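As described in the Methods, two query proteins were run sequentially through the folding procedure within a single session, without resetting any intermediate state between them. The first query and its resulting structure tokens are shown here.
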Amino acid sequence: MTQEQSHQGPELESPHEFAYVDDGFERLWTPHRMVYINGERPTDQAGEGCPFCSVTGKDDAEGLIVHRGKSCYVVMNLFPYNPGHVLVCPFRHVSLYVDLTDEETLEFGALTKASIVALEASSSPMGYNIGINQGAVAGAGVRAHLHQHIVPRWRGDSNFLPIIGQTKALPMLLEDVRQRLVDAWPRG
């Protein structure tokens, strides 16, 4: 090592010297998201530690429930990706989509459609991400109680602030977004 190198610090190794295959993907390392993987797990017993079972015992405003159907309901996500991020859940404590009854499946789909209608009327999104994460390996934060995400999207709504600053900018309070959705919920 020369005297000049010792003043500059250690020489960095090139990643190309390690065993790797260039797959064309850039990598964004987000270790802060490990809390979702390693976090406390709810029990599999209905009502015991399940946030989706406990919220239904609250009034709609306190529980952030947008709409209650006969077998399913729509609730605001407490950790939204974007304003208006809602969840469609069955009242019954069930973990798999295939375990829904035919009646629950029909209402689950109908509430998904109604949620989109209400989001269109209240905030005019440019698109949506709609999905169910079943099981821990699929990213389910609460795997014991089935829930479907509906995330409204707008051009430019995602940036590096959540990754670098560990902060998500949300321009509206959950209570305000919930009220807008309740007011825009399709009638009839």
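Immediately afterward, the second query was submitted; its sequence and tokens are:
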Amino acid sequence: MRIEILKQLNEAKRARRAVILVTDISNGEDRLAFEGDTLPGLPAEALTKAFLTGKSGLVELDGWSFFLNVHVPPPKIVVIGAVHISQALAVMAPAAGFDLEIIDPRTAFATPERFAGVTLTADWPEDVLKHRPLDAFTALVAVTHDPKIDDYPLVSALKTGCFYVGALGSRKTHAKRIDRLKEAGCSDAQIARISAPIGLDIGASSPGEIAVSILADIIQALRKRPIGAGA
């Protein structure tokens, strides 16, 4: 591998950008492909499938063979709110391959006893996210019902381009939220990305069922994300 290719690959990993190292089996030539790129001789569908599945493998076409070594950042879920839904989601998310972090400044809720073994920060989201910023491979889940806590991370998630943004609340609550987000500078297109009411509509009622609907919604957003959009 050429040193310049290795440097670009390592930089992409540090920046949590998805990248594929494409090797032409016939001559050993390496190329890098980022989400939204096209490479001569390689179908765009093959790159898209590799980015969405995160799986490396051999692609053969018209006598040509390419090995796709896929490097997709591990997806993570940042939950704003240490509530009952968060407790259930914290158990389910790792089984589905997601890192999970919970942020809530309310120390009565954000306790180690309630979230044993979970990355938990009892601080304001705006302070936490300055040091651990959101990115395109982050799902933001806001479930406190408190605009003073939820709104900042929602704005940050929309402007950062998180692959999933969800917020708990009724349609009436969300209508008021939309007005606040517009005042904060979010566009109609950005706001339309919010899953609200949060999660897939499966008729969920209990915290555990709502957590299932949220996790399913997140998985769907990750695996069906528009490759290259906003990249």
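The mean pLDDT is 94. We note this only descriptively and draw no conclusion about the first query from it.
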